[in-house]
Amino acid sequence: MIGRTTSPRVAFVLVSYAPDTPAGMERATGALAMGLHAMGCRTIIITASANLAPSPDTIRLQSLRVEFPMDDAALRKAIVRESHTIRSELGRILTREAIDIVVYVDALWGLGCIMPDHHARRVLAVHVLGHREDMDPAIGRADRVIAPSPALIGDAAARGYRADSWRVVPNALLHERIPADVGERERLRREGPFRTLARPALNKGVLDLLKSVPAGLDRPAHMMLAAAPFDTDHETQQSIVDRCVRACVPPTQLSVRRLSWAQAPAWLAKAAVVLVPSHAESFGLVALEAMNAGTPVVAYDVGNLPDLIGTGDDAGGTLVEREAGPRALWRAALALVQDRVTYLHTSRAAYYRSRDFRPTSIAEHFLKAVW
């Protein structure tokens, strides 16, 4: 930020944004906006979500009339139909709010594919690799492209994107926690539940995890499922939920409900171990929130999870080869809680690894990357 003497005004565009949405892009956007606000930046979030409580920090995009949940194809059709009107309204909002940096949170869901002409610095945030028809125009219009992990940038390069100039801006913690004291963490090690928090999607791995619960498991295993705005195939989701219900036998317990953003970290904090059975993770917010509470994580070695959780003496959990399957996740979790010294060391390491992702730290990193 050499030569800059004032804090920039930052806008985020994410049409599905609403507080407490169980989706990584929404949570990451809220956390970065909070971090920037704490640094003295004026921040707004532009959304198409209806029925939001009036707020000076959230602006409703009137020209995009959509209802959630919806899929990519339906959203794309709505954007194309009203693209000229949407661009005009976005431009007016950015001008009225005197925005210096505008972050299009996704090529499609963040309207990066139709960025309007405006003097604000255009940043495309790539949380997932979308369709080429959305990604190509968004990348072409962006002044800077950011992604939450080197793993995602590597995936982009492997798919043929020229990603060498992309910058890594990790996701931030939205709610920081003070870990339990040693006595409480020891109690959780001995008798606390294993917990998993995910969406009802096959690639989240919850069904496979439930089907592989070890015989004689001596503690509860809690699974929490909640759908996001882009989870549109209700029949498929319900099928997954129904199959999870059938696979759920004591001591496993299944809940299908949405936790608020403030509730999720507290729920993860009360686990002995958080299992992340996802087959792919571009960042791993659930793992980060668990680690911030001092809860060790057991996960597959996919996506960003090896970098986030770590390996060796300072690891915040245990990584399992994806090919080893869900039984290996259970074995790793059981091994961890059976070794008091390793468990408490891992708990401390998990918390200290998470400190790098405080909102103001990530906000400062963001400004250095794009401003």
UniProtKB/TrEMBL annotation:
InterPro entries: Glyco_trans_4-like_N (IPR028098), Glycosyltransferase_grp1 (IPR050194). It is an enzyme of class 2 (transferase). Keywords: Glycosyltransferase, Transferase. It comes from the Bacteria. GO terms for molecular function: glycosyltransferase activity. Residues 24-172 form the Glycosyltransferase subfamily 4-like N-terminal domain. Its EC number is 2.4.-.-. Pfam families: Glyco_trans_1_4, Glyco_transf_4. This is Glycosyltransferase family 4 protein. It comes from Actinomadura monticuli.
